[in-house]
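Q&A log
Question type: sequence-to-structure
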Amino acid sequence: MASFILRRLIALIPVMCIVLVIVFSLVRIIPGDPATTLLGPGATQDQIEALRAQLNLDQPVILQFYHYVVGLFVGDFGYSLKSGQPVAAEILQRLPATIELSVLAVIVAVIVGIPIGVLSATRPNSMFDHVTRLVSLVGVSMPAFLLALVLQLVFATTLGWLPVSGRVSPYLPVEPVTGFAVLDGLLTGNLAGALSAVQHLILPTAVLAAFLAATLGRFVRNTMLDVMGEDFIRTAKAKGLRRRDVVLNHGLRNSLLPAVTIIGLKFAEMLGGAILTETIFAWPGIGRYMFEAIKNRDYPVIQGTTLVFALLFVLTSIIVDVLYGILDPRVRRKMG
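Response status: OK
Response body:
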């Protein structure tokens, strides 16, 4: 297992190099000039040229790439063209908010999606099965931005039960300790702040979890229907095992292996693809940070956040492979 993890980590190096080259090239192909964007339409040509020289944008692209790669080896992602702050520090400041939201969304999706899939598979073509299939189809088909707007309209604007956006109430600030607002509120004894953070988490978590829960429910149902028709299931029933043991210990266990892949990949997508949800809910994560950088053509931030997304995606894939080995002895033997 250790040698397998080491091999995957070594394979990570060329992948990240390719991602680095692609991202560095693409952000410079996009039409427009960041100096002009930052200074606004009223800037003179001399002011634009002076800012380009200050930001080293007047240097050849090869030289800019060389300085960027050298900086990465010492943890220097460059400085934001908009704020002037180190990109690495700003990413680290926002990363806990994205992780907090994504982890909670995955937990909710697993708690909701897998039991629904199991119950649907054990009651095929029943009323419950038809209803859950219809609801999961809606969950998979509905765009995230539309669901977010509907939830904000109903639960925040109309009913007033939940905050419409943000991470914590401005009247109940939470002193940062770990960067995770709920945990920080509990650690500092600020229970009102922790409760406010939980309330702010509910709507964006529901949006992110809806798609994954619907996907998991449909996937587990279909997989379990196939597994429940296998010979070893009939053997287990013939041995007189209780139905619950047959379903949970034999059917569900063999259906969860493909589901682990779905959960891992979707979690990685949430870490890097929650841009829309974070923007709608004004969530201060790296997804929204990247969205603002794209609007302002902030090259260093776009490059830095994209690298972090790629790294998180690859690391999540490695964790999924390791979980495969833990859950399935056949895979573990192949890993060596």
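Response note: The CA atoms of residues 142 and 211 lie 8 Å apart.
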